[in-house]
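Envelope stress response membrane protein PspB
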Amino acid sequence: MEFLVGIIAIVSIFIGLPWLIFHYVTKWKTAPRITQEDEKLLDEMHILARRLEDRLNTVERIVAADNPDWKPGLPSASSSDYEITRRN
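Predicted structure tokens:
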């Protein structure tokens, strides 16, 4: 019984593991690459997100100017995390 366990362990280490690694390396190399069109779309979405964030900040400033007791709603993270995220 111990002999059979030893053979299974050796076979899995020297045959199974390299096969598994080469299988996923091949899958990784044949995976679809990001195209120029995809990059352009991502850039446009990033620009749009920045514009929307600027608009939201403008609306918050206007509301805060009209109503001094109003405080802008922050995300669920702490305000220091929010400020760090907004700057990046």
